[in-house]
Design goal:
11 helices, 690 residues, alpha+beta, six-stranded mixed beta sheet, six-stranded antiparallel beta sheet, Methylamine Dehydrogenase, Chain H, 16% helix, 37 strands
Length: 690
């Protein structure tokens, strides 16, 4: 693009799709202050004089999507990603109070509008990926793809209750090809190349992606007060959901560490909290033994106590099923049912589960409860016989804070070394982790590639064997102090494990079997960065290391005790809370800062961490550059030195729709990016199927 384009409007029509193209704007301190002024004008109209600001449509939900357009495994365009520099675009969906919108942000940095309609409120929508086919299984809707699944207030029939049907539309022809009706409201949609999952309250229904016939359904989900009424996680093959009971015969080995066997680090961090919790637990035990409550009990405590005896539901239980091997019909986890298709069944929290997500490989699962204090990272190690032989390693407890917060979004980096968790307060918390566990440090996170668990020095010095021996003697997966706690048998959440497992482990000369004792130690991790949305008045980004204020980055050695600024929002989601979504991706800020230059192939590889993209209910997409570095207060820098992080916003895109924008509806031309991606993936699928 010529350099003169930098002075033009960031919006222009697209020659390819007919939609709008938005160029990135540099996120400087000046632009940030201008956005705050615009924000104040929207909130307080009497604070400005002159022409009123441009009217914007209200955003209800935001989501980053995975579809054929950014499928690196099946889209042949990205198979030469490392040699050609071609990288998949970000796919963003925005739900408005009237309709929805789809954006694509390619590596060039220019956001391209792909789809836009106004047909009433939309609760959930998904762009369905091309299904996996074989010689025995054909796609009945191959000529109609790509398909868009929508759950809106008024269904295609017009007579069904609000949000009680899923309509599947062809983006190629514009026609509705399928409508799936339900008797109860739908809360969310999930999909992969195998199934389409419809989430209802306390129920899950899965449909085959080739025929959209019902494959299986689950009716034993534990309800959650929100924001996800029925939280699930769908990977490439596994489906995780919140179970309402813990069945001992199906329970996997491991799971969450209880509060009474916290790690030494967690105990030091929250000593006061532990004492308070212990006193509360004593009171609860006395109450359970006597069958009475103290005279000063509240109505909520009396109600909970009365429901304790008659309610068989148990919160915090997670069940993972294999969508390929699970039997058709109802999936029931009970003492009388077999374990076919059940991958794992374990306790994850003591409170109801609020949100969970798989990492890209599907081997790690992050779960959060309704309190939002801590997030748990589990490693799932399956066994081909039954879920009771599988192991669930509690690798990390990601400690957010002591105040309550509801989690709405979880995202992994592509190398699974970073996790970002976003709450309804509009804050995104960035945590460092390792796929195999252990303390994040300079050696593990200052390299552009994932390193081995043990360094060459540690292996040559025999430290790996010493560590295994100490862990087996201590028996503690959660405590570094010998005898303080044992493996899951020390937790009330788990049944006792048979000591015969340890004997068989060593007699079979297999001390490295990850499904047998000893289980790995739990690591408590604090966030390196807490990023708030720039369009709120409370814009100070707090962190354990360097701090961010507005768009400028600087370090603060001593924490500043100041009263938090009030939060004001002109456009809020349900309940007056901020809807936020985040995703990791290659940097696209090069054009905003150097509009007259061409992008070099290796320019995006200069950072150790991918950029973090955050979209909020204001419709502003911001790219944040993450720069981890050794802790500045460390006396000496070594491989084990802890980390701190500097974050800086580099570019922003204003993607919120205005009432003056035209709709962009199918049928689309053959050169539309969504159609080209669907054709490429389908062609690849046919090649694999012969």
């Amino acid at each position: 693009c010529p350099a003169t384009m930098a002075t033009e409007s960031p919006r222009r029509p697209s020659r390819c799709t007919g939609g709008v193209v938005v160029r990135p704007q540099a996120a400087t301190e000046q632009s940030y202050m201008e956005s705050v002024v615009t924000f104040l004008q929207d909130v307080v109209p009497q604070a400005y004089s002159g022409t009123p600001p441009e009217e914007k449509e209200k955003i209800v939900w935001v989501r980053f999507e995975n579809a054929d357009l950014n499928d690196t495994s099946r889209n042949m365009e990205f198979h030469e990603i490392h040699s050609t520099g071609n990288e998949p675009p970000l796919l963003l969906m925005i739900g408005y109070s009237d309709g929805m919108q789809v954006w694509s942000i390619p590596i060039s940095g220019e956001a391209q509008e792909l789809f836009s309609v106004r047909h009433g409120p939309v609760r959930a929508a998904r762009i369905l990926p091309a299904p996996q086919i074989s010689a025995q299984k054909c796609d009945n809707f191959a000529e109609k793809r790509p398909l868009l699944g929508v759950c809106k207030s008024i269904g295609s029939s017009g007579t069904s209750p609000p949000y009680c049907c899923v309509d599947l539309y062809s983006l190629r022809t514009g026609e509705m090809v399928k409508s799936i009706q339900f008797k109860t409201p739908i809360y969310d949609l999930h999909c992969n190349k195998r199934i389409l999952v419809v989430v209802l309250q306390e129920k899950i229904a899965a449909f085959d992606s080739c025929t959209f016939t019902k494959k299986f359904f689950v009716t034993s989900c534990y309800p959650c007060p929100g924001p996800n009424m029925n939280p699930i996680a769908l990977g490439s093959r596994w489906l995780a959901y919140a179970e309402n009971k813990l069945i001992r015969c199906h329970q996997s080995r491991g799971g969450a560490c209880g509060d009474n066997i916290q790690s030494y680090t967690a105990t030091v961090i929250s000593a006061a909290k532990t004492i308070k919790t212990g006193l509360t637990m004593v009171g609860k035990v006395v109450t359970q033994l006597t069958g009475t409550l103290p005279s000063g009990a509240t109505e909520e405590e009396i109600l909970a106590h009365s429901n304790l005896r008659r309610s068989p539901l148990v919160p915090g239980i997670v069940t993972i099923i294999d969508t390929e091997t699970v039997a058709e019909g109802q999936v029931l986890v009970s003492e009388d049912s077999d374990s076919d298709g059940i991958v794992a069944h374990f306790p994850a929290h003591e409170k109801p589960i609020c949100c969970m997500a798989f990492n890209p490989s599907g081997m790690l699962l992050v779960t959060t409860d309704t309190l939002g204090h801590d997030f748990h990272v589990f490693q799932i190690l399956t066994h081909p016989w039954s879920s009771s032989q599988s192991a669930v390693h509690h690798l990390y407890t990601l400690h957010r804070g002591e105040t309550e917060a509801k989690v709405q979004d979880i995202s992994f980096s592509h190398d699974c070394r970073w996790v970002v968790v976003s709450t309804l307060r509009g804050t995104s918390h960035v945590f460092p982790i390792n796929p195999y566990g252990g303390q994040p440090c300079v050696r593990t996170h200052m390299s552009p590639r994932v390193v081995n668990r043990m360094s060459r020095f540690q292996k040559s010095a025999g430290l790996e064997e010493i560590e295994q021996e100490l862990t087996s003697k201590q028996g503690g997966r959660c405590s570094p102090v010998p005898g303080l706690s044992s493996s899951p048998s020390g937790s009330p959440l788990h049944g006792k494990l048979n000591s015969q497992d340890t004997y068989n482990n060593f007699t079979n000369n297999n001390p490295g079997n990850p499904r047998l004792l000893p289980l790995p130690s739990l690591t408590v991790v604090l966030p390196l960065a807490q990023i708030k949305q720039p369009m709120t008045l409370g814009t100070i980004t707090k962190r354990t290391g360097p701090y961010l204020f507005g768009a400028g980055c600087f370090s603060i050695k001593a924490p500043c005790k100041s009263k938090p600024a009030p939060q004001i929002s002109p456009s809020k989601s349900v309940g007056g809370e901020f809807c936020v979504a985040a995703v990791f991706g290659s940097s696209r800020s090069w054009f905003a800062n150097n509009s007259g230059l061409k992008r070099e192939k290796d320019q995006s590889k200069q950072f150790v961490v991918e950029s973090l993209y955050i979209i909020s209910c204001y419709g502003s997409l911001v790219e944040h550059v993450l720069e981890p570095r050794p802790l500045s207060t460390a006396p000496k820098i070594s491989d084990d030195t802890p980390l701190e992080m500097v974050t800086c916003p580099r570019a922003s895109w204003t993607l919120v729709r205005t009432p003056q924008w035209n709709e962009l509806q199918p049928p689309f031309n053959a050169n539309h990016p969504l159609l080209l991606a669907a054709d490429a993936v389908q062609y690849y699928q046919y090649l694999l199927a012969g």
